[in-house]
Specification:
- There is one protein chain.
- The chain is an alpha/beta fold and 285 residues long.
- The chain has one domain: Rossmann fold (3-Layer(aba) Sandwich), CATH 3.40.50.150.
- The protein is built from 10 helices and 12 strands.
- It has helices spanning 47-57, 60-68, 72-87, 105-112, 124-134, 164-174, 191-196, 214-223, 241-244, 249-263, and strands at 15-20, 28-33, 39-41, 95-99, 116-120, 138-139, 149-155, 175-186, 210-211, 226-236, 267-269, 277-284.
- The strands form 2 sheets. Strands 6-5-4-7-8-12-10-11 form an 8-stranded mixed β-sheet, with helices on both faces.
- β5, α5 and β6 (138-139) form a beta-alpha-beta unit.
- The chain starts with 14 loop residues before the first strand and ends with a strand.
- The model has no long low-confidence stretch (mean pLDDT 91).
- It binds zinc ion (ZN).
């Protein structure tokens, strides 16, 4: 029996979508959608998530390629944008721990903005790169960390974890009193997802175990001792309809590449909660 980790409801008879895996061409996974908003990927064989993880994340050259080629300016802008939101609640000088710090590219930006930074990353090579390029200390497993921090950042991580509740509980113990948690993850209630249904590109099954809405993320945070402070949804400029009007497609691709690298455009922010990515700031209560 599968139960929702947010509200505890049984999911066996919940509404579900059958989603094609983008990693395994021959596999589809049911995603059970709970009334509280949270959707859960139904995984029969747990070892498959390790294979999925290894397939996507072990290739460090791919990560370097993302951050150091065409998308560098774009990612820089996105992260600066994110830091601006964090700065509203926690000024530079404070201690940040980023869980899932990848090669340290984003933490280096936080460091340059005046924060005292530590990373946490399971991938051995990524930890080495962070140290080598930017002299950023990186822990391996955040469940082993004893030190306390003022800010904990989790970008595109929580939806991958087998037990997000246990992770939030541990994070709560790692934060100083009134410490800040920043979470970013895909928005299952984005206009794009509601329109595309099982074709939505961010299901990423079985790698993404859970699929949050603003409401279900907020409820899970509250359940683990956090008080939601600020939430927004942000989208990507590349999804704007205006690009579809540009022909031929090659020209569109070139323009997008120029926009991403030179113009340094980050997130697209609009009012409402219908954009692709949720960004939530919560305080340790
Ligand atoms: Zn639920």
């Amino acid at each position: 029996m599968l139960n929702c980790i947010v509200c505890g409801r049984e999911l066996d008879n919940a509404k579900s979508l059958l989603v094609q895996s983008d990693i395994f061409a021959d596999k589809k996974y049911p995603v059970r959608i709970c009334e509280c908003g949270l959707a859960t990927t139904e995984i029969m064989d747990d070892s498959i998530t390790k294979v999925a993880n290894d397939t996507i994340y072990n290739d460090v050259s791919l990560r370097i390629d993302i951050y150091f080629h065409n998308l560098r300016g774009h990612f820089e802008a996105r992260y600066q944008d994110t830091l601006k939101l964090i700065e509203k609640f926690m000024p530079p000088g404070k201690k940040i721990l980023e869980i899932g710090s990848n090669i340290g590219f984003t933490l280096n930006i936080a460091k340059n903005n005046g924060y005292n930074v530590t990373g946490c990353e399971l991938n051995d090579k990524c930890r080495e790169i962070s140290k080598l390029l930017w002299d950023i200390p990186v822990e391996k497993d955040f469940f082993e960390i004893k030190e306390k921090y003022d800010v904990i950042i989790m970008c595109d991580v929580l939806e991958h974890l087998p037990d997000p509740s246990a992770a939030l509980k541990k994070i709560h113990s790692l934060l100083n009193d009134k410490g800040l948690l920043f979470i970013q993850l895909p928005n299952r209630q984005s206009e794009f997802c509601l329109k595309l249904k099982e074709k939505w590109p961010f299901w990423c099954v079985p790698d993404h175990r859970f699929h949050f809405t603003v409401k279900s993320l907020s409820a899970l945070c509250a359940k683990n001792g956090f008080v939601e402070k600020s939430t927004r949804t942000v989208g990507l400029y590349t999804k704007h309809f205006i690009w579809k009007l540009i022909y031929p497609r090659r020209l569109r691709k070139v323009l997008l590449r120029i926009m991403d690298s030179i113009l340094k455009i980050g997130f697209r922010k609009i009012n409402g909660l219908g954009e692709e990515i949720i960004q939530m700031v919560a305080i340790r209560g």
